[in-house]
Amino acid sequence: MRNIKKNLPYFILAGIIISVSLALSVLSLMGDSVTTDESPHIVSGYSYLTQKDMRLNPEHPPLIKDIAAIPLLFEKAKFDTSHYSWTNDINGQWTAGTHFLYESGNNPDKIALSARLAVLFIFIALCIFVFWWGRKKYGYWGGLFALALIALSPNMIAHARYVTTDTGAAFAFILATFFFVKYVSKPTLKNLIFSGVAFGIAQLFKFSLFLLIPLYIFTFGAYIVAKNYSAKSSLWSKFLKLAKPLIAIFVIGYLIIWPFYQYHVWNYPAERQKTDTEFILRSFPIRPIADSVVWMADKPIIRPYAQYLLGLLMVFQRTGGGNTAYFLGDVSSTAWKSYFPTVYILKEPIPILIFVFFSAILALYSIIRRILSDKKIGKICSVLLDWIQKNFAEFTWISFIVLYWTSSITGNLNIGLRHVLPTFPFIYLLVSGKISKWISDKKGAFDKSSKIFILAVLLIWLARETTSIFPSYLAYFNQFAGGSANGYKYAADSNLDWGQDLKRLAKYIDDNNIDKIKLDYFGGGSPAYSLGEKYERMNPRDLSQRHGWIAVSATLLQNGRAIAAKGFDQDTSYYKWLDNYEPVAKIGYSIFIYKLD
Is pTM beyond 0.90 here? Predict the structure, then answer.
């Protein structure tokens, strides 16, 4: 009781930070239209819960979508099972999403708000978990600092508000990693079971959680080497012996997956599941694997695993195939190796970049000092292995960041910083540890008061960045990019424009008494629904439309006036003619409005 009273101010401060972040999230999402990926996610989740049929959106596990759809059960939204997107299309998620939200008599704004608020609880849980783990590792101030970084990150807030899988993946990674680290540090049966359950639940959030398998194997192997370095002759036997619990974690996890997927294929006709699987995997390059999943798809006991594996293979297939994307004036369907590092530097607030850079310098300085003091290679290895054993959590975090960033950089999907978002909580925790140690260290040019002052200034700067971009969190770019107003010059898609500003465009049209506007829209909203008779679909190649009011989404605009990268054979010049005009307005940084004579 005495400890609770003593530490109550820290919990109150943590509650204030989370409440501010939550308020910014909720108030900003009110004006956002349905974004690109939300439409299929929302309708899929509702179809899962009401139909027990996972024919829509199999490329993502069901848990996030289920959570988002729970409030819709109480609203009794209408779902049309006679529509061709359900009866005839194979994975007709996009058409089904549009029909569900805008053509079935439902209230799309109410549905989107309810689904988003449900998913927002995952972000709250993530913030609490970061604070809790940071407190355990670095004390209350360390936990609060890590919490402030994640809760006030405009990139985290941007995606925490939407019915997508990125924030959920971040939570699942940190949850599964925590229980894995706990088991390795204290290998009891209880901790093994918890780790297995956490691993299984994580697989239900996003297929990128599959990376936990190589992460566990690598870090577990490194820990065994570190712990038994002196007994070289028994290393392999110890690894084989201790690998059994690791296998048990994976087995428990994949047993957890079965009942979830069984529910989701309960009413999915076996013959339909098989034909859908066969069609979707028709171009999968490794045929023995694809054919095995097709064979499994209509078998009663293993059908749930077939559906899980279908989604996993779809992710591999899509990562290999790529997406058309704009980056630094070029358009390509293949990846740029510099994409994620560049976008990270341009979209992460400068105060956070300073923290990350300074923490890296502190870590590098510490390593160099150790190397210089221990000149023998054997001694250096011994020091490294000792550090792994004593700092296994930090070693796992670093390993995960390296693994995830390497996978993202070498992959073929360059459509948004959100794809590396799951690494942010671990980066913030590592930064928290280094900064906390730096402040408590009495050595150096600054005293403790000066260090705290510097820290406070940077945190105030971060808070100002986050509040000043309200409500356009998705479009946030830092001063290195010239601010959010210039972000479209560097990258688009989910870095800037996901269709979130359609309702704000409708307000602009009403406020300016515009009777008709030609719109080329990128997103999950419905221009016909939001703009009504004032909407005319824009065709950039139609010369007869080049007059009057024109609105173009930034993603489509940039894709149409860029340079085609080597090997990209599609037209990238269809909006070059708009370079001769200046936009009269920009709606939320993502929709450009022109008035032509």
Answer: yes
